[in-house]
User: What shape does this take?
Amino acid sequence: MLDRRQAIIGAAALTALPAFAQHKLLSGAEWDKVVADARKEGEVSFYSSGVARAEEPLMKGFEAATGIKVKYARPGGAEVIIRKIQTEIGAGRPLADVASMTDKALGIWAEKENLTAPMPVPNVANIDPAYPVDSLSNLPTGGFGLVIAYNTKMMTPATAPKSYADLADPRYKDMVLIGAPENAGSTTVMIKGWVQHYGWDFVEKLRKNGLAETRLQAEAAQAVARGEKPICVVAQAWAFVNMKQNAPIAVIWPSDGVVFAEMSLIRMRNSPNPNAALVFANYLLTAEYQSGSQAIAGAYGSVKGAAVPDLLPPVASLKRMPVNLAELVAQRGEITDRWRKIMS
Assistant: This one.
């Protein structure tokens, strides 16, 4: 059995690899050299759109095991992170080594734009088959549903909406909040799911029904927890965080199928610390890390053995609303522009 230090730096890969990766992952002397060079670099810069209070404390474990200092930053949602990375690379001063985003489609886009570099790290072998690995430049670290959350002091299970479709019902006029897609990548994934399933007419109905936006999804969940509005549609983690704090919030998994967003891990091309980035990426793909971040924050991990968050159903039991990510990558600007024209 691997000890904790070996698990973090990935001294060995013990399970079968996806066919495309079998001859591409670093191992043996190659990986030993990466680890040695990473220690010489001495630090790694990590941008995340996750829950800082769950992620940031776990950086200490990585630092203690490897001697590599983590510069952790949460600039905002996935859209904000991508804009920041673009600005840095465009200025010829890339600062981020690794970024974790709550939107796989943005990772696909970043790869197409040549912003990323591959991560052939040993722990790719431990990714659960429920998260298909399409590219070593865009690795899954977990996922979450875009759920309906409601204030239990303002509504009951009987009166709360049961589906996304219900949000356009006049019974819920002026009651619903979401985070703006310009700042939250997973909101854009959700909009794509809605349009794919119901068409743009559904968005028009939402606008007429008084759907309102906050800057961030976290703010929408907080507003519902405070009783400012009775309903929000947010990443399950934001509902989970409030529930764990005994806020009067309950979650509904939409009967028409929940939009499920995969979290994307990317390594930046020409980053300052390329070897430390690989070692750190390998750490993010451990059950130890994901049990201490995703499970605490209320998201699902991507690797075998990662703990499942309490208060939430097993990921395999979820009914999902399909989202065509290839179309989302191609149409993202068009989708957000059309959404803004309708909502404004």
In short: The chain has a mean pLDDT of 90. The radius of gyration is 20 Å.
